[in-house]
Amino acid sequence: MKIGIISDTHITKNISSFIDFLDTYFKEVDIIIHSGDYISMEVIEVLQNYKNFIGVWGNVDEPEIKNLTKEKEIVTIEGYRIGIFHGHGTDSNTLDRAYEKFREDDIDIIIFGHSHQPLVKTKKGILMLNSGSLTNKRQERWYSYIILELHPESIDLQFKFFS
Q1: For the chain, what are the domain ranges?
Q2: Distance in angstroms (rounded) separating the CA atoms of residues 51 and 44
Q3: Which of 12, 59, 124, 149 could form a disulfide with 88 if both were Cys (CB 3.0 to 4.6 A apart)?
Q4: Which CATH superfamily is domain 2-162 in?
């Protein structure tokens, strides 16, 4: 199963560039996971019509987006339990907030965003993934996303960076 992972798109205009990105880089993925901060309902509509889509809301998303998505989502794909959460909050740091959100949930992988900082790390046996941002890199050098391939006995992970 091939999964495209994005977060923090913060798109308010030029949705056609986002569609071009999907057509170019996510054509082969089976599922798209977005870990929040879409900003625009158009982004969700495009994702819903493009591929199988799983997403959660982020701290800057409007009530309309929050009504369509959850704050926290748990899905099972290829036998892996995956937790998805944006990462917002005031306690600790983004990584720790994402981990704590699923502390009681027997999770294999946690996908989160919020910091706009690409990250792959394990924390107490859980694979922690932050794809960074496609459109708002803040202090980072590159924009980024993840291609994650899940197999019953292995995980293949590719970070993709671009300027």
Answers
A1: 2-162
A2: 11
A3: 59
A4: Metallo-dependent phosphatases (3.60.21.10)
